[in-house]
Design brief:
heterodimer; A: 438 residues; Formate dehydrogenase/DMSO reductase fold; two-stranded antiparallel sheet; B: 286 residues; alpha+beta; three-stranded mixed beta sheet; three-stranded antiparallel beta sheet; 8 helices; globular
């Protein structure tokens, strides 16, 4: 059997395969030997975390709710919050990237390749988490297509995010293959879908009359703003590391991105803080009893400490102080602020999901929860989240190590497209195959 | 011509077509509603013969669709919990106390007007003399009542609207059912129900369909009322605090509740148009 790869014919007979396996083994050893110790530690640590996630995921099969601490009173818990966090970050990455590719701000153009890889990883990780949360994910895949319910916000969400996955794959492939025109079209489409996707997700929550804390037309807008915040934070972390580790694309180009992200963070943090203040004030003054109860749960109830300290203090105020301060060491401050924002936003997703349920306006399936329903994530739920986040990190580090994710044409020529593939994408050999010595 | 190819249709082509069709066929099979669901959606009683399908029979006469409704007399309920126990038995409801299709709440009004609500084990074993609600033990009680809770079978059910795959639906008689062979277990209907009437079945649950992790809810014992019987909870109630009937039937006991002074609905402001009518409520019930 003969296959064609990149114009080359490769015979898949036994000696060829055996030789390839030997080369792969040798290549793997060479790669491991070439890795600095810190990188080995990173790989080992992330692999261990993924193993924890895999065990936790395996425990959820066959379907059931015993391994999760959700109850009829609090049916949506940590995994739903994690799904929201991951897929909204996907949208944020695309929206930040669109500043360069769609709106023509040169400073953000170098994020194109890295954003699409990250967006794809975050989205697939989100899908993995929601598949474990759903008891019958296969039914959902078929059901959305064969038994559509356009009246359901969740149907729209599933459909749009399914399309989103396709668009991102298309964007990645066209970028890697160097199809400039198609890559640009894909980028524009993904920016559009990136706006629609969190809107549908916001509607999943915002359309429920039974949950006044979630309900409201402003929920989708809040999700879009916080999406850009989380996307910018991820890119902030990545581009500071690009410069620090001298990865492809480091230097003035990456520094420009970091400066742009810093300005973006200042604006977005201000918007989110203002929104939170107005939203809370409105709930307390003119909100329904259930809405008020949810805000009270966040302010002085069981969610108070984590809400004030992590969500607001560490997640919003501290990063705002870091990025707004007009001093030196911008990269370091953006790096720390971005991490804090990501942690704060994760907690924000969790408190958003739980606050809408733990202050119940009715008994649920015979459970009377007064004044608050109880929900503490199980170890299994935490394990799945840890594994999902570690999987994103591990795959991205691998991609970054082996593939050149820089934009060779410079800021004005992101899709000038690696001189039409004259330059190899591989930074180093993968299992003994290909690669340049960059 | 290659013997493996007939009219240009090779084995490879056949495999390609088969691979393309197989997932679709599996999906169709997965999504095909169970016979009882088909019966429910067509308004027939489960197991009843479709008259239109009987060869030789004349044109089917459309039967009048009943307007079923449920009544709860809170002033009559004694909180014995027989209704909860009967429901669990009749409908294979998981035995754990947090899974219930119906339950009984006790609303205690203190002298200062504070309301305490408790429902120990959903009221299945009755109620202790003193409310188990936090802070209720030390207060002077002004009044108290028992309130039966169950699915409202809303005319505008939020649970039906939000289901992404149409697994939750309304029968022509207005009963909201779940096709548990189609339910994906997302829990959206559970959080969407303003009355807390739904839950996801736990692992190992002995549901009628054997599916764990799917939505379950009160159906007003659809399998019974379709055959002219009353729901199990109504049948066992010793004080007739639960009443079931057809609003189209002038002689139905439900008429007494629906036409009683002070009859009310739960959370009518949500626009769900519930079809459980309450009388004798001392407090606002969420």
């Amino acid at each position: 059997m003969v296959i064609r790869v990149a114009g080359r014919e490769i015979a898949l007979d036994r000696p060829t395969v055996a030789a390839a396996l030997v080369a792969a083994r040798v290549g793997l050893r060479a790669e491991v030997a070439a890795q600095p110790t810190w990188l080995k530690a990173v790989f080992a640590g992330l692999t261990a975390l993924i193993a924890i996630g895999a065990v936790a995921a395996a425990l959820t099969v066959p379907p059931g709710t015993e391994v999760f601490n959700t109850t009829p009173a609090v049916e949506w818990g940590l995994l739903i919050a994690t799904y929201v966090f991951l897929v909204v970050t996907t949208s944020g990455l695309c929206l930040v990237s669109s500043l360069g590719m769609v709106f023509g701000i040169d400073r953000f153009k170098p994020v194109e390749m890295r954003h699409v890889v990250l967006a794809l990883l975050f989205l697939m990780s989100g899908f993995g988490v929601i598949a474990l949360e759903l008891h019958y994910p296969i039914r959902l895949v078929f059901g959305v297509i064969l038994s559509p319910s356009p009246g359901s916000p969740m149907w729209w969400m599933g459909t749009v995010y399914g399309l989103y996955l396709g668009v991102l794959v298309f964007e990645l492939v066209t970028n890697l293959m160097g199809f400039a025109r198609l890559a640009h079209i894909a980028c524009v489409i993904s920016a559009g879908v990136a706006c629609v996707a969190p809107t549908t997700l916001g509607l999943v929550f915002g359309s429920l009359v039974s949950r006044p804390f979630w309900q409201g037309s402003i929920a989708p807008i809040y999700l879009i703003v916080t999406a850009i915040l989380s996307g910018a934070s991820v890119l902030g972390i990545v581009f500071v590391l690009v410069n620090r580790l001298r990865l492809p694309g480091h230097g003035a180009e990456a520094t420009d991105v970091i400066v742009g992200i810093r300005r973006l963070l200042v604006i977005l943090l201000g918007l989110v803080i203002a929104y939170m203040a107005i939203r809370s004030l409105a709930a307390i003054t003119i909100g329904s009893a259930a809405d008020r109860a949810a805000v009270e749960a966040l302010a002085i109830g069981p969610l108070g400490p984590v809400s004030w300290i992590v969500r607001i203090g560490l997640g919003l105020l501290a990063p705002l102080a870091l990025v707004a301060w007009p001093g030196r060491r911008v990269a370091g401050r953006v790096f720390v602020a971005s991490w804090l924002i990501m942690i704060g936003l994760f907690v924000d997703r969790l408190t958003f999901v739980t606050a809408g349920q733990i202050a119940p306006s009715t008994a649920a399936s015979g459970i009377v929860s007064a004044p608050y329903a109880s929900y503490v994530p199980s170890l299994d739920e935490i394990g799945i989240v840890v594994g999902a986040v570690a999987a994103v990190a591990l795959v991205y580090v691998l991609v970054e190590r082996f593939i050149d994710l820089s934009s060779p044409g410079g800021p004005g020529d992101v899709h000038g497209l690696r001189a039409s593939l004259q330059r190899t994408l591989l930074r180093r050999p993968v299992l003994g195959l290909g690669g340049s010595a960059r | 011509m290659d013997a493996r190819q007939v009219a240009g249709f090779s084995r490879r082509h056949l495999l390609k077509v088969a691979c393309a069709l197989a997932p679709g066929l599996v999906g169709l099979k997965l999504l095909a509603p169970a016979p009882d669901v088909v019966a429910a959606r067509s308004g027939r009683a489960p197991g009843a013969t479709d008259p239109a399908a009987s060869p030789g029979s004349g044109p089917a006469t459309p039967a009048a669709v009943p307007a079923w409704a449920f009544g709860v007399d809170a002033s009559a309920c004694i909180g014995c919990g027989h209704c909860v126990a009967a429901c669990k038995l009749e409908n294979h409801v998981p035995p754990e106390p947090e899974y219930n299709r119906t339950w009984v709440e006790r609303h205690v009004i203190a002298e200062d007007g504070t309301i305490f609500i408790d429902s120990p084990d959903a009221g299945i074993h009755g109620f202790p003399p003193v409310s188990t609600a936090p802070g209720a033990a030390a207060v002077a009680v002004k009044d108290s009542s028992f309130v039966s809770r169950l699915c409202m079978q809303c005319e505008n059910p939020p649970c039906v609207a939000v289901c992404p795959v149409g697994a939750t639906y309304r029968t022509p008689e207005g009963i909201v059912l779940v096709d548990q062979e189609r339910c994906v277990g997302c829990g959206y209907c559970v959080v969407a129900c303003p009355y807390g009437a739904r839950y996801l079945t736990p692992d190992g649950a002995t549901t009628p369909t054997g599916n764990a992790g799917v939505a379950d809810k009160c159906t007003w014992c659809y399998h019974r009322i379709s055959q002219g019987r009353v729901p199990a909870c109504v049948e066992v109630c010793p004080v007739e605090a639960r009443v079931f009937g057809d609003l189209n039937d002038a002689g139905s006991p439900i008429q007494k509740i629906v036409n009683a002074p002070g009859v009310g609905l739960l959370r009518p402001e949500l626009g769900t148009s519930p079809r459980v009518y309450y009388i004798g409520l001392e407090t606002e019930v969420g």
